[in-house]
UniProtKB/TrEMBL annotation:
Residues 10-322 form the Enoyl reductase (ER) domain. PANTHER family: OS02G0805600 PROTEIN, QUINONE OXIDOREDUCTASE PIG3-RELATED. It holds the Pfam family ADH_zinc_N. GO terms for molecular function: NADPH binding; oxidoreductase activity, acting on NAD(P)H. It comes from Nocardiopsis kunsanensis. It comes from the Bacteria. Keywords: NADP, Oxidoreductase. This is NAD(P)H quinone oxidoreductase. SUPFAM superfamilies: GroES-like, NAD(P)-binding Rossmann-fold domains. InterPro entries: ADH-like_C, ADH-like_N, ER, GroES-like_sf, NAD(P)-bd_dom_sf, Quinone_OxRdtase_PIG3.
């Protein structure tokens, strides 16, 4: 088969469409014939050599895909999946390829009403948003959630999911175009982080109960100040650095908590639990059109270098797809 490989860690030109061996199926895995994958920020870090795949994962980039089941591996014969099923999947790697081996618990059916290719935009955002807003962040109807980077792949999904849950949604983004897109998706409070202090704005709005954070160290204290009593922060990325001073006094006085999670490195059984929660609670919202995939653009897989350039320039709103 062909896959996008990283010849030497570096810039987008390091991504090359190369002939490689087909994946071998281990116990509990299913072979998927890939229709599309999607670009994630983590793929950029992997390409640069800053985010190596976890032990045992495919060396090729790609944290999600859609496609059709091509073969059932050992121990998956009674899983309920059949050759030819249209699926999408959460991956630890290997989506930028013609075929990928997937632990069976990480497969999801393509939601009704969604195209096979656009389904590749869903697994990573759905699993990240569900696990962080609900399983970790305990978001409830009527609460206010602040989502940083509202125009991102994660942000565009999180806005719609939180609104569907009955939460009030605030976002930050760096351009008026992205803020307008966030409003169109349901965000009620929009803050341009380049011209407005989100902490002040959230205080004027009564404070946030939950912050979904991607900036890490740079926003830690600002996030704590934006929270109301009992508030929570879930950190999912460290785009503004990995460390900062933590004011425990502020946490103690307002009974705050800070969590940080990564999806990719979690054990297969934990991922299966998250995927099962997504299937039960998030998929119906997509099928009822309460959440729609937000796809900025779609490129052929061999043009992965251009897709990475677009992501690094932050030109996109929503997801960037790579198709076969
Ligand atoms: N922990 C996990 O399990 C997990 C899983 C999936 C994704 N993630 C992380 O979540 C983040 C979003 O992922 P993605 O794939 O959706 O990436 P993405 O689409 O490239 O989003 C990154 C976003 O960051 C925004 N941004 C940059 N500086 C900002 C600032 N100072 N304040 C607020 N927003 C800012 C950019 O928007 P502007 O153009 O508006 O600046 C852009 O929309 C990435 O860092 C990714 O690594 C983590």
């Amino acid at each position: 088969m062909y896959a996008i490989t990283v010849t030497e860690p570096g810039g987008p030109e390091a991504l090359t469409w190369s002939e490689v061996p087909d994946p071998a199926l281990s116990e509990g895995e299913v072979l998927v014939d890939v229709a599309a994958t999607a670009v994630n920020r983590a793929d950029v870090a992997q390409r640069e050599g800053r985010y190596p795949p976890p032990a045992g994962a495919s060396q090729y980039p790609g944290l999600e895909c859609s496609g059709t089941v091509a073969a059932l591996g050992p121990g998956t014969e009674d899983s309920g999946w059949s050759v030819g099923d249209r699926v999408c999947a959460l991956l630890a790697g290997g989506g930028y390829a013609e075929k990928v081996a997937v632990p069976v618990g990480q497969l999801l059916p393509v939601p009704s009403g969604i195209g096979l290719e656009e389904a590749a935009s869903l697994p990573e955002v759905a699993c990240t948003v569900w696990s962080n807003l609900v399983m970790v962040g305990h978001l409830r109807a009527g609460e206010t959630v602040l989502i940083h980077g509202g125009g991102s792949g994660i942000g565009t999904f999180a806005i719609q999911f939180a609104r569907a849950m009955g939460a009030r949604v605030a976002v930050t983004a760096g351009s008026e175009e992205k803020l307008a897109a966030c409003r169109e998706l349901g965000a009620q409070i929009t803050v341009n982080y380049r011209s407005e202090d989100f902490t002040e704005r959230m205080r004027e709005e009564g404070g946030a109960d939950l912050v979904l954070d991607i900036m890490g160290g740079a926003y830690l204290d600002k996030n704590l100040r934006a929270l109301r009593t009992g508030g929570r922060v879930t950190v999912i990325a460290l785009m503004g650095g990995r460390s900062a001073e933590l004011d425990l006094g502020r946490m103690l006085a307002k009974r705050l908590s800070v969590h940080a999670t990564a999806l990719r490195s979690r054990p297969v059984d934990e991922k299966a639990t998250i995927v099962a929660g997504v299937l039960e609670h998030v998929w119906p919202l997509i099928e009822d059109r309460k959440i729609r995939p937000v796809v900025d653009r779609s490129l052929p897989m061999h043009e992965a270098p251009d897709a990475h350039r677009a992501m690094e320039a932050s030109e996109h709103t929503g997801k960037i797809l790579l198709t076969r």
